[in-house]
């Protein structure tokens, strides 16, 4: 491969980083801007493979030590600088609730495994309401680094196999000194086979996982390797690419740029990605790169070889590193930014990016003593990685533990009068004497069902927990999603007091509903449907309870025509009625706990950031209740055997909902009650259940 400078590739790199930056600044600006990362992957696969194969052809071997030294001095110092700066930004701008996660992300990013951490986090239902990581953008760098670990070694193995009779494997590994004689070109068929062995399984897995678990598919390395392999395959054909007819090459190049443009404006957050859709920007980038040498100025080079795009391409690595931490810090400090505000932050990120390129990235990449002695470059890389990790570990030891009063020492809902609506004790106030749980620890204030491993995840099977009186005459089933599970701290002691034999059947993102819910993951949809079938077989058969207590968050369901319903329209109402009626017909009393208000902001984050201005964490009752439980209320109306219990006046008594009542933090995230506040609602829930069941199985 020619090592000559390619202005079109530099401009393409600038276009890719601009797309990502604009998308991060405001999704409406470039709805599919995330495909810029996929363009980067193709460029990286092309350049790295070209350099490695050129070395293999000219020297007969690949010097792995020199290769990793080049990667080390090129990438690690700038990444380390930004990691350290991000720790400072996080400490200054992020609420204390996010310090521990940020420190963990720094460690994972420094080790270039943060994409796997983010994938696990994306599939964690309890973490879904958390704000994006300040280092989320490092996922793509992790994917590339993992490719850099795999691909050169695979090429070495191919080279060893190709010439195993002509020289010892030790020389191929670059472990012997001395100048190797030029070797015959490694057969391209073997190299293509190696790329296919990496790329084809990755493409198929990407298509599968994007359908089954899209939130995980976006981050993991295995769904992206094929994109780098496409760039690698392109590099193997670099010798014949300049022979393409000029007009044909120009058409191919412009068509490739058009494909990238179509993805930028035609894709959005609802496009299943990466999967098959990623082929559009990936093949588009490959067409632009492949056609460039033959098309010349007749192709996209005339557009890509402009001052702005080439300047962005020049500092694209540092700019990519800097822009996201600054955006996250600004949003944490000033709230949601408009698209214009996001653009302003992105524009400002050019300054530290240019300084990092000028004083860190470029000088160290070309420093003579680092080039001459690869071990020195590797030591520099280790230092660039180790220092942020050490600082992150220190930060982890200083993160507030969130300790405070023991549960029960604060009254919570007990501070409100019996009829709490408009009770001033529940009104927002800037300062309170105590907050329990401390906002830093709020994410851990969850029902015991999670610790008991009897709450099914989004793709889990039917699980159960038994509580209350094992010998009780009355059997109660508590079933639904996490919005009924949040009531366990109140229901469990009630079951003990009333002598119920109770079982809990809960599953994340899955209501008790005889309808297909609309979810981004086909696996989640299928899992929820199967869970509902198993639940109905159990509760309408051998384990039929006397009472079913249920609740759920708001969902959209699939209409008969395949379209998605609204959150509270007749389709959902009818589905709820149909579901509950089946239990009533089987002789089961149904109690529906009306869904709780939605703050639509992360309350612990807000409370941690504004401990003396808690009114900034309040929110309007009317908005919080809009679409919340309205379908439940409509479905329960005039249904015999079904009772709706509404305790929302004890959660939000006044026109503006408070973050803290009676010294207890009400929410652990954007929609779930803390276990402590749910427990403080126990007397009110007990009274409501006794009233609802009347002379039935509960008894007073």
UniProtKB/TrEMBL annotation:
Q: Where is the Acyltransferase domain?
A: 8-357
Q: Which InterPro entries match?
A: Acyl_transf_3_dom, Acyltransferase_3, SGNH
Q: What Pfam family is a match, any one?
A: SGNH
Tell me where the transmembrane regions lie: 36-54, 75-92, 146-163, 189-205, 225-241, 248-267, 273-295, 307-325, 337-360, 380-399
What's the source species' lineage? Bacteria, Bacillati, Actinomycetota, Actinomycetes, Micromonosporales
Domain SGNH as annotated: residue spans: 454-686
What is the protein name given in its UniProt record?
A: SGNH hydrolase domain-containing protein
The species is Luedemannella helvata
**GO MF term list:** hydrolase activity
The answer, when asked if Hydrolase is one of the entry's keywords, is: yes
Q: Note the superkingdom of the native organism.
A: Bacteria
Q: Which UniProt keywords apply?
A: Hydrolase, Membrane, Transmembrane, Transmembrane helix
